[in-house]
Every structure is written in structure tokens, then in C-alpha cells.
Amino acid sequence: MVGPPKKHFLPLLLLVSLFAIFFFSHYHSSVPITPLIPNVNPNFIPINDLNKNLSPQNTPTFTFLIKVLAFNRLDSLSRCLQSLANANYDGDIVHLHVYIDHFPFVNDSSNVLDQKLEDSQRMLEFVDGFLWNFGNKVVHYRTGNVGLQAQWLEAWWPSSNDEFAFVVEDDLEVSPLFYKFVKAVIVNYYYNVSSSSPSIYGVSLQRPRFVPGKHGNKLHLDTGRELFLYQLVGTWGQILFPKPWKEFRLWYDKCKAKGIKPFLDGMVTTGWYKRMGERIWTPWFIKFIHYSGYFNIYTNLGHERALSVSHRDAGVNYGKTVGPDSQLVDESSFDYNLLEMQPLSNLKWYDFCFREVVPGRVVRGVDDLGSVLQSVQKLQTVLLVSIFGTSETITRNLLCHFERLNIQNYIIMGPHSDFLYDLARRGHPVIDANNLLDNMRAQKLIRFQGSKSELADILVKAYMIKKCLEYEYNSWTIDANMLFVSNDFFHEFIINKSKECIAGKSSEIFFVRSSSSVRKIWTDVFLNKVATAAVQAPLPTENKNFVFLVTKLLEQNGVGITWVDETSFGMKISINSVIQSILGAWKIVYWSMEIGLDLVQRQLEEMGMWALDGDSSCKAVICHQSS
Ligand SMILES: *[C@@H]1O[C@H](CO)[C@@H](O)[C@H](O)[C@H]1NC(C)=O
Ligand SMILES: *[C@@H]1O[C@H](CO)[C@@H](O)[C@H](O)[C@H]1NC(C)=O
Ligand SMILES: *[C@@H]1O[C@H](CO)[C@@H](O)[C@H](O)[C@H]1NC(C)=O
Q1: CA-CA distance, 564 to 572, in Å (whole number)?
Q2: Hey, what's the signal peptide range on this chain (predicted)?
């Protein structure tokens, strides 16, 4: 493909060798997760109402564009276009756009120059003579060398939300089945409102090969799962969906204009960017996908088979021809119907670590709780995090720390908001506390008059602990005004302290051990006592806090409570606190809800506990061994 002059050949060879080196790291997927029962669009917000009941067939503006990126390899291009022309397009109109990059103007001898000019001319003559019967053929011949990044990025600006682009580098060859497959994916996962997701940015036809968060290690797939979602972009046969691509282009503009680089710690692609800079485009796209929490659809056809293959021909990316990476499939390759697709809710989703992500876990009502609790618990323990009264960035920062510490058994509970639902879309389990409280009242689990939405925090916490006790889970409850420095915090407390409940003296840390004695006390009656106490608690609000209210009620019932002093193991941020950058001795960092979030952020930055970058996504992708 398109790329740098010969003297910069080495870095590209390094990239090639990354593809070639296989580290056999066996991936074990996480504890089996109880699948959520699919009901009407349980997991995903529809793309937009305009798409209701539309399909390519009855959407007049449905358009499929093939964007071929070519440079100076006539034989490759010829094979590529031939395979595209041999595909089955079902009688649909499909347009072909060919982008031919120019050779770079370097100080060549006149012989070499004449040869290059002649090659270019032959290339254009071939493309001009190439018969394309399925739609328009448009040729874009560059006046200068733009390179791979601009070839990709400038290939497309979608003219509607019904326009799809298939970007094909010239050393690819596609299966004759590719279009029928892609169309089936679009019908099933884009136009079907009850089986679509705004998180999907496209479809990759290549065989998935590596895990970018794990040094580019080879990806190991179980057989028997035909389709799955994975965050990584595939450059050997990528179909792009219009909306995410537009968002990407705008995001890229913003980063370029502001001098922001696509650095994402922990990703092998960041190393590529550092070596190759603007000659490649994938680090930018990958950074955008990490920021936006989007996913790509992949096939797992087994036996190293795929719907598109790269011949990895000699050229700029490869010093000599490496040959195809996979085998192309055709109609005869399958003893099942590849075009019959499962509902989206049956597919698995994977992040840049190839760790399973479960999007769409939202607790809105009492009946949603069981499956979500079971899916998040680890070692029979659940961590409930209230984000009432905190900002989005503080919550995001907390979630980056959970990723760093490999804490997976959390549920975020907060007020009804787009932010909360966006967290769920990205795979964080959430509780919509306002909806859940309404549902608790509708089901007469809790009785009190008036709309006390400010009590949602307390009442939902009390209810969640009750449910955890019913499932025999230990529960930790915290507010989002703290960060853990390491993840041994919980274990130590549970091991050291013998009483059934642990409560923080000055924060909302609260632990309830699963035991039959507490289960007997924490009943619906108890829940209503909490509600009554919360309603009656006098202002100011500090007397309305959860730990204050429930510990009083528990003590009245003779439950033993161990009080812990946060100042003995935590570092408190306050206006005049002296920042200690050595956090080793501390287990947590915490702050009062009253202090300004700017101050919190500044101090966390000084401590090295601010894990967000400029666009409020985590600075790093952190993969763990057995996750
Ligand atoms: C190109 O090469 C010629 C002869 O080697 C030299 O005189 C000329 O300055 C070079 N031009 C550039 C732009 O490097
Ligand atoms: C849309 O998806 C749902 C859920 O997977 C499925 O039951 C339904 O048949 C699909 N509708 C169409 C028109 O394919
Ligand atoms: C738990 O016990 C260990 C050993 O007795 C002690 O070093 C540690 O500080 C205790 N942790 C807490 C949080 O009390």
C-alpha cells in the first residue's frame, strides 16, 4: 500500500514482524455470566426512530459503496477488483470508488521516473477499462502522494445514515459471499430496532488475529461462535457504519487541531504510532473507539477461514510477498446458513484485552436485579457504588481505577441520566435508582408518601443490601468520593474484622457480611423503618446519610458493628491537605462531597491518581492475566 519512502522501511518491517510473532497466551473467559433474558430491546437504545421497520430493501437511500485504496501494484489491484466483480450482489446497486495514490516526488533518476510514470498510466488504463456492472465506477487519481492515513480518512464522508462503505486495500481478495453476509448483518443488526445497538461501528471480514492490549498477542478463539463483537478495527476488509465514522472524522479534526496525540497506554498500537506517526491511521481510530466505547462485528468461521484475506504482497508494508493470512470461504464452505443470524443479545462482546464485556445491564425494576447481581458478584461479594452527588469525570476516573485494580464485581447506582445509560452501554452494570425506587413503591415493597427522590440513594442502598443478603452475597457500599489505592482493601477488612457489619466513621463505607442473623433482621419491615427514619431525619443532610441511619437501626436490633477510622488507613483530600505522592501506606484516598471537584482533580493529578486524559476516557488500557 501507500507509505513512506524506502529509507524508512525498517519500522514497517517491525510492524510486520509483530504480526508474525505469536505468543501463545491462553485466554480464559470470565466466570460464566447468566445471560439476561431478552425482552423488547432490553439492552440497547435504538439508533434512531427513523430507522424503524426499515431495511435495505425498503430504504430508498440505502447505499453501499466499495472504496478501493490503490497505489502502484497493478497485479494486486487486478486480483482485488476481479474478486469484487465476482461477488454476488443480489441484484443490488453497489458503487465502486477507486482511489489511486500518486508516487512520491523524490529525486529519482530519469529512468526510474519514466518507469513510474509509465506504471501509473498502465494502472489508470486498467482501471478505466475495468468493467463494473453493479453501479457507478468512480476513479480518484491523486496529484501527489498522500499516504495510507489520508487514503482511508478521505475516502468517505457519509451522505446519509443509510450509506455504508467497504474499504478495501488493493492486496485484498474477497469471498463471493461477502456482500450477502454484510447485507444480512446490516439487516439484522442495524435496521432491526429490537436487535441493534448504537455501539456498533462496522463489520470486519478478516479473521481476527491479535489482542492489542496484550502486546499484540495472538488471539485464540473457541470454535462454534460464528459472530462476536470486538473493539479492534480490522484493516483487511472493514465495513464502516455512517454515524460512528462521521463522529470519528470530527473527533480526529478536533484532536489534530488541538495537537492531541492518539496515545493509549498499554496498547501495542501506541508503539506503532510512536514509530510511524501519521503514516498510519489505525492508532487514531483505535483511540476514538476506546473513547466512544464502540465495537466491530467479527466472524469466527474456524479453520483460519475468512470472508476477506490479505495477500500481504510485496510493497510498502511487506518487503517481500508473505502470502494470504487466511483461506477464503465460499457457498460450499458451510454446512449451515451463514446468513441466519442470532439476536444481538446472544452475541458476546470483547474489549481491547479480549476480555468479555456485558453491555446493557441496567436495573430499572425489582425483577432486573437477580440476573445482574449474579453476573457481577465475585467470591460471593458485590460492591455497590453510589454516584449521587458526584460528577461524571469523577465517576469515570473511579472506573479507570477499577480497571487498573481488576475490580469487576461493582454496580454503579445513580440518578436516572443519559450518563448512567451510557455507562451501561459500555458494559458497566448500573442501577437507575429513580426507576428502581418507583418500581419498589409500585410493588408496595416500600411505603411512604410524597416524592422523596432525594431519598433514592438511601432507600435503594438499603434494598440492594437486602437483595444481596437474599442471594447470600456479602456487600460493600461506598460513595464515589473515594478511590482505592490497591485492591487488598476489602480482603483485609473481611479477614480482620469479625463483626457482621463494618461502617466508616467519616465516609459512607459500609460492609454487610452475608449471615442468617442479619438476613433475619434486614427484612421488608426493616426497609420501611429505614424509609421512615430517612423521611423523619432532620436537616441538615449529614443526618440523612445512609450509614448513620442504618447503623442506628441495626444497633437497636443488636447487630454488631465494627467502626473503622478512615484517617488511619486513608488519605483525605481537603483544601489545605499536603499532598503525599507516595501513596504506598494508604489504602484509600477520599474527600468530602462538599469540596470542589476541581480541587479534587488537581490533587488527584498530583498524587498520580487521575487516570483520565483530555477527552475523559482512561489514559490506559489495562489487561489482567486471568480476566
Ligand atoms: C537531485 O539530484 C541532483 C543530482 O544528483 C542534484 O543536483 C539536485 O540538487 C537534487 N535535487 C534535489 C531537490 O534534491
Ligand atoms: C428483529 O430482531 C428480533 C430479536 O432478535 C427478532 O425476533 C425479529 O424477528 C427481528 N425482525 C426482523 C424483521 O428480522
Ligand atoms: C489487618 O491485620 C493485619 C495483620 O494483623 C494488619 O497488618 C492490618 O493493618 C490489618 N488491616 C486493617 C485494615 O485493619
Answers
A1: 15
A2: 1-30
